[in-house]
Write a structure and sequence with these properties.
about 300 residues, Alpha-Beta Plaits
């Protein structure tokens, strides 16, 4: 091992000399990094805090005002909610622009530094957030659904409350608030039941035995839909008949497709129609599916006289 020691010592000495030679250059670059603080306007930072607080107050006022208008003008609720969502989005963008303009001196050097910093943030730490923001802008323009829509997404079903910069909030029928990242919305399938309208189709299935009077049963289902106080009479109520196998039972499926006048009354409408149908079936002797037994005669045995 002794012949290898001189080369190791020479390499070590060369590394130390290179480090000493590079030290002054690094020391000269340090003041430039410290000078980055000159681009910050500390008075503007304090003003930015006031802008953010003011924006939060305005957002709260917009939310309360929109809620009162929605209660007072129920038939215009989808338009009011869409307008409220657009105002919120504009407040977010305006607040960000004002805070940047107030806090940073935007000369050519500052723009270069900010551009480099943003590129680094987008490439690493901020990539998920930026992706969600870009997806939020895409949702606002592409509109796979709108605020106030009743939507089914990823096994969840409820009303869209807000479409924000980062996420979409949904209120399920169990009164749970679900937060969905915007970039997830663009990659999965979402189903909107009303898409900006108040009325919504509410499909309902009813099953009867194959030996029952199908015509009378269909008329009873149709009448139950039309007499419900939640029906939207401007749309017709189609009733479809199909023979199906239901858990080893041969059954007749009667599917009604009525419209409820307001999507928030979907479940009360469905309950009311089912109650009416059950009472009508009972009054007219229409029974649910049952196992039907057939007698098969043995061909080898004589037919009884």
């Amino acid at each position: 091992m002794s012949p290898m020691r001189p080369p190791l010592r020479a390499a070590t000495a060369a590394f130390l000399l290179a480090s000493v030679a590079a030290a002054p250059a690094w020391a000269q670059e340090t003041p430039e990094l410290i000078d980055l603080t000159k681009f910050i306007q500390w008075g503007g930072v304090a003003a930015s805090v006031l802008v953010i607080v003011g924006s939060l107050v305005v957002l709260r006022l917009v939310g309360n005002f929109g809620e009162r208008l929605s209660r007072q003008f129920a038939n215009r609720r989808p338009i009011i909610q869409k307008l409220e969502s657009s105002i919120r989005f504009a407040i977010y963008i305006t607040t960000i622009i004002l805070c940047v303009r107030l806090s940073v001196r935007l000369d050519s050097t500052a723009l270069t530094v900010i551009g480099g910093g943003l590129a680094f943030a987008v490439g690493f730490a901020m990539r998920d957030l930026v992706a969600a923001i870009i997806a939020g802008i895409t949702i606002m323009f592409d509109r796979p659904f709108q605020v106030g829509d009743r939507v089914e997404y990823a096994g969840q079903y409820g009303d869209i409350l807000t479409i924000g910069l980062r996420s979409v909030r949904m209120n399920t029928l169990d009164d749970n608030i679900i937060t969905i990242p915007n970039n997830k919305v663009l990659t999965d399938v979402a189903s909107s039941g009303n898409y900006g309208a108040l009325e919504m189709q509410v499909p309902m299935d009813f099953y009867i035995g194959v030996d029952q009077d199908v015509k009378i049963a269909a008329e009873l289902v149709h009448e139950a839909c039309l007499t419900s106080p939640y029906i939207f009479l401007s749309r017709r109520v189609p009733v479809l008949i199909t023979q199906v196998i239901l858990q080893n039972y041969v059954a007749i499926r009667i599917k009604a497709r009525p419209y409820v006048f307001d999507c928030k009354y979907e479940k009360p409408f469905e309950t009311d129609v089912h109650m009416r149908v059950l009472e009508a079936f009972r009054a007219h002797g229409v029974h649910p599916p049952a196992i039907l037994h057939r007698q098969i005669l043995d061909l080898d045995q004589p037919t009884p006289a």
